[in-house]
Amino acid sequence: MLMNGSAVSQFTLLGLSNSRPLQLLLFALVSACYATSLVGNLLIVVTVWVDPGFLQSPMYFFLANLSLIDMSLGSVAAPKMLRDLMSQVSTISYGGCMAQLFFLHFLGGSEMFLLTLMAYDRYVAICHPLSYPDIMRHHCCLGLLASCWAGGLLHSASQLVLVTRLPFCGPNKLDNFYCDVPQVVRLACTDTYVVEILMVANSGLISLVCFLALLGSYGVILVTLRGRFGGGEGWKALSTCSAHLMVVSLIFVPCVFVYLRPFSSSQMDKMASLFYTIITPVLNPIIYTLRNREIKDAIRRLAHKPGFRCWT
């Protein structure tokens, strides 16, 4: 069966380990992470959705969308990984591999743009508080959010075009636990130098530029907050921004590590991939809920609602 004019119709995923005890341990850990990610992010979405004040607040509106992306992003690789760890049959069809690659970059790109938008929202709220209600009106927030999703779609589509134009005629062993551009490109039976350069320009530079823009935004915010620590306002804003900055670092640092150095291959690439596909979606809701008193109070109120108690 030929795919894309090549002899490869499926790929073999080498995964993280061939040791059966370690595979079972990984299955337990990934299961716990995936379940925690789904429950934690869903709780944030429901909390924001049922609270009219949160839903009208740009910061919490964007946070709910971040949680939606995290739930979806965690579901791209984790279910397949869990099945492979239990069955020890780690294969994926060509079409399934391309679909996994597409959704990984679509959701990952959208998340990067959304985090940049969230940094802009905090910048306007802290540095230009009087203009904030006019700048971040609800319909403007919807338009900015749609731009994030559109940017993620454009980024992912360009990655998919780069990969599907390559011929694959063997070998078909992917040195990872899911399909991603760097590992798939290395299997092409043609010179991929130009493709890898384009990949760096696409994924790597997008990650780096967004990360530097975020750091610049928070640098300005810290300078603005410097004289406000005498009261509670400055500390509250700093707590919110520090939580956001922690999430940003957890996502962007592994991505920059993987996509700015596509010509190398190491076990560290697998660890970085595991971190931002499995672990980061778990840490995001934990970081935001533990460091945000308003979210914690809203979750407590939600837990005491009769309908929620019956549902749980």
Automatic annotation (TrEMBL):
Ranges annotated as spanning the membrane: 24-48, 60-78, 98-120, 141-162, 205-225, 237-260, 272-290
UniProt-listed CDD domains: 7tmA_OR4Q3-like
GO CC terms: plasma membrane
Localization in the cell: Cell membrane; Membrane
The entry's keywords: Cell membrane, Disulfide bond, G-protein coupled receptor, Membrane, Olfaction, Receptor, Sensory transduction, Transducer, Transmembrane, Transmembrane helix
Main location: membrane
Single GO MF descriptor: G protein-coupled receptor activity
Residue ranges that the Swiss-Prot or TrEMBL entry lists as coiled coil: none
InterPro entries: GPCR_Rhodpsn, GPCR_Rhodpsn_7TM, Olfact_rcpt, Olfactory_Receptors
Family to which this protein belongs: Belongs to the G-protein coupled receptor 1 family.
Protein name: Olfactory receptor
Lineage: Eukaryota, Metazoa, Chordata, Craniata, Vertebrata
